[in-house]
UniProtKB/TrEMBL annotation:
Xref: Pfam families: DDE_Tnp_ISL3, HTH_Tnp_ISL3
Record protein name field: ISL3 family transposase
Matches recorded under InterPro entries: Transpos_ISL3, Transposase_DDE, Transposase_HTH
Domain Transposase IS204/IS1001/IS1096/IS1165 helix-turn-helix: 97-146
Annotated ranges, domain Transposase IS204/IS1001/IS1096/IS1165 DDE: 180-417
């Protein structure tokens, strides 16, 4: 083994490229950026064909390789050695040296690739911004991400007991003309996010919004993986529920309580609007007490201050139908607070008889929806598994989308979301 015959100089220490020393540097001239010529500190290389070490240098070609910004500028020139193979029987006559920092045919150093990937993974930044910073093109950075990150295999290695599924729109609505029928069609690109509810990590992002997409994704998982899923938390999407029931017949479905409360609040709002039209034949105004304090009607009844409570009583005293709708909403909240089957059934019976007694169309419609989700509501009450972490993952996905000003390609979108990992994907 040959040892380097030079002393380590100050420029090499400052440049700090492992395994290399700085030979010379030239300042930026016009469009040409600053150039640094570096050379490996070893004086020999192993032939990739026969493995025999050679120190007979045949040529020293210059290769343009981009490196991390140093003092504000980047482009570097590397001097590579081309060795002649000294093994007579070797079919390869010569070979170029390779190092960890500069693999064969690399146009960027390994430390620049690592910096780019860390920048994209650590923060939900736009890929174009990261690319601008290191003077690379957007496709180059995206290629670095797609080729380095393992986006697929991590999911099937995880033990997912509680699964969350939710959807969001990943790009703007478009109107496309069908080439055959010439009819204009509205296209809404939706994405489904699968989340592990135990730690909140994103398992996958899939193009589509139908139950069939959910079923297909779940069917693609290994059998043991599907058997381990105990509870799937959903918002009130019957398509997703059908997909989950087909693909995971053993898993229970839990409906997220936030969506149920919102449904009950919407019912109250519908009654309030209808009553204003019936009484005044116009929309609500700031002079109408229910309209003025409308936010109070959607607040949790047991968490009001004394002042809020007196205002609420003022509103409810004016309109009996509104008071009834508010009472139904509070019944729904009590139902969701149940923790076991017995108290759930008790609250359910109370709610059903209260809705029957109101004879109003809005509570009856709410009750029909709740009846369709009764089994899932009971699962929620017993397990308390919610979709909150999926909603948080959805928010992360939307943040990445907004920061990047939208994505046209779903594969790039998926890579960016799964690649942005505050938590590691593999368990
Ligand atoms: Zn050889």
């Amino acid at each position: 083994m040959h040892k380097p015959t030079f002393d380590v100089d100050a420029a090499s220490i400052l440049f700090n490229l492992p395994g290399y020393r700085v030979v010379s540097a030239s300042p930026a001239v016009g469009d040409r950026p600053r150039q640094v010529i570096v050379e490996t500190i070893t004086c020999e290389g192993a032939c990739p064909a026969c493995g025999v070490f050679s120190c007979r240098v045949q040529a020293r070609p210059l290769q343009h390789v981009k490196d991390v910004p140093c003092g504000g500028e980047r482009l570097d020139v590397v001097r590579k050695r081309r060795y002649a193979c000294i093994e007579e029987l070797c079919p390869r006559r010569s070979f170029t040296e390779e190092t960890d920092q500069l693999p064969s045919r690399a146009r960027v150093t390994t430390r620049l690739t690592e910096q780019v990937i860390t920048a994209c993974r650590a923060e939900p930044r736009a890929v174009s911004r990261v690319a601008d910073e290191v003077a690379l093109a957007w496709p180059t950075v995206m290629r670095m991400l797609t080729s380095t990150l393992d986006l697929d295999s991590g999911v099937d290695r995880r033990h997912v007991a509680h699964l969350g599924i939710d959807e969001h729109r990943f790009r703007t609505v478009r109107y496309l003309r069908d080439p055959d029928s010439h009819a204009v069609k509205r296209v809404e690109p939706w994405s489904i996010v699968f989340t592990d509810l135990d730690d909140g990590s994103i398992l996958d992002v899939v193009d589509g919004r139908r139950g069939a997409t959910v079923r297909k994704w779940l069917a693609a998982r290994p059998r043991w993986w599907r058997k381990r899923v105990q509870i799937v938390a959903l918002d009130m999407s019957s398509e997703f529920r059908a997909g989950v029931r087909t693909a995971l017949p053993r898993a229970k479905v839990s409906v997220d309580h936030w969506h149920v409360v919102r449904l009950a609040n919407d019912m109250g709002t519908k009654v309030r609007r209808r009553r204003v039209w019936e009484l005044h034949e116009r929309r609500g105004r700031a002079t109408d007490t229910p309209w003025k304090y409308r936010k109070l009607l959607t607040c949790a009844g047991d968490r009001l201050t004394l002042r809020q409570r007196s205002r609420l009583q003022e509103i409810l005293a004016q309109d009996i139908e509104l008071a009834v709708a508010w009472g139904i909403k509070e019944h729904v909240r009590q139902l969701l607070a149940a923790r076991d089957t017995a108290s759930f059934q008790r609250h359910w019976a109370r709610l059903a008889s209260a809705v029957r007694a109101t004879r109003l169309p809005e509570p009856a419609s709410l009750m029909r929806t709740l009846r369709a989700w009764r089994r899932e509501l009971l699962t929620f009450c017993r397990s308390r598994v919610t979709n909150a972490r999926t909603e948080a993952a959805n928010l992360t996905a939307k943040t990445i989308k907004r920061v990047g000003r939208g994505y046209r390609n779903h594969d790039n979108y998926r890579c960016r979301i799964i690649g942005y990992a505050p938590r590691p994907i593999a368990a």
